Amino acid sequence: MQDPELQRALREAIVEPEIAALREILRRGVERGEVAAGHPALEYVPAQMFGVLRVRPVVEGEYADADYLVRFVEAAVLPALGLT
After folding, report:
1. Which of 7, 83, 1 has its CA nearest to residue 45?
2. Which of 32, 41, 43, 47 is most buried, judging by how many CB atoms fall within 10 Å of its CB?
3. Which of 23, 76, 27 is CA-nearest to residue 48?
4. Rounded to 5 degrees, what are φ and ψ at 74?
5. DSSP H helical segments within the chain, as ranges?
6. Is this prediction's pTM over 0.70?
7. Are 64 and 53 in contact (CB under 8 A)?
């Protein structure tokens, strides 16, 4: 994206609220003792989730539907957090 103002607006309107919601979910998992507070994978989970949503159509020609996302979380995100 070439327009910095548009990029900032999209990030503020779409990306940041989604990342905040995901970080809140992760924070609650830490709070409940389900994930170690200092686990190094915690900071990468938002990028993993946004990555699969944005890249799958390019790589595989299909959107990441609910079934795919469940499989992705079970195969990639949970093991990264030590939750297998």
Report:
1. 83
2. 41
3. 76
4. -65, -35
5. 4-10, 16-31, 45-60, 66-72, 78-80
6. yes
7. yes
